[in-house]
UniProtKB/TrEMBL annotation:
This is 3-hexulose-6-phosphate synthase. The keyword Transferase does not apply. CDD domains: KGPDC_HPS. The keyword Translocase does not apply.
Length: 210
């Protein structure tokens, strides 16, 4: 099980600084969608250059022009690129095909999907690397989480790795770990804390313990 740090509300310099604090406790750094919107793929390039030993995920949440966008993110240094599960099958297949060509991975974000089990089964057949259940900020605001959806994808996905994101905190991490996802994504649960290093260290400890 890997720990991914999601960076959403920072600029490039702040991102580099946050990663410096928690580098030893994380496996993947996510350049979040708001950062890509503000800074472009330069943010992906800067983080990969600063931390070449960490995997970098570009949270593009691709909806169309998938092959092209995966190619550009890959050129910037992304190891994993995200596409939305609601995208057309053709777009998902295009993303997978380009990622394979580039030696990269595709994570499908299931945000906004109603039939989680049905779509996860289809996506699993397309050869995506990760299927990620995700409660975005707007639904977190009304108290939702993705813990039940994680159980759902765990029960139907046979090939892809599973991931979970959305409002995970130190206090809720054990519940997530119990469902055994391959990747746990944490943003504000680390970046919003005064002692980011201590929280990330504790999270890594819990993940290693299982
Ligand atoms: O993908 C995300 C969100 O849509 C904003 O881009 C976040 O990275 C993801 O939700 C993880 O962040 P937290 O919810 O703060 O843990």
């Amino acid at each position: 099980m890997k720990l991914q740090l999601a960076l959403d509300l920072v600029n490039i310099q702040e991102a580099i600084q946050v990663v410096k604090e928690v580098e030893e406790f994380i496996d993947v750094v996510e350049i979040g969608t708001p950062v890509v919107i503000n800074e472009g793929l330069h943010a992906v390039k800067a983080i990969k250059e600063a931390y070449p030993s960490l995997e970098v995920l570009a949270d593009l949440k691709i909806m169309d022009a998938a092959g092209y966008e995966v190619m550009k993110a890959s050129e910037a240094g992304a190891d994993i690129v995200t596409i939305l599960g609601v995208a057309e099958d053709m777009s998902i297949k295009g993303a997978v095909s380009e990622a394979k060509k580039q030696g990269k991975q595709i994570l499908v974000d299931m945000i906004g999907i109603k039939d989680i089990a049905g779509r996860a089964k289809e996506l699993d057949e397309f050869g995506v690397d990760y299927i990620c259940v995700h409660t975005g900020y707007d639904l977190q605001a009304i108290g939702k989480n993705s813990f039940e959806d994680l159980q759902t994808i765990k029960s139907v996905v046979k090939n892809a790795k599973t991931a979970v994101a959305g409002g995970i905190k130190l206090s809720t991490l054990q519940e997530v770990i119990n469902a055994k996802p391959d990747l746990v994504i944490v943003g504000g649960g680390i970046t919003g804390q005064d002692d980011k290093k201590a929280v990330a260290a504790e999270m890594q400890k819990l993940i290693k313990k299982g």
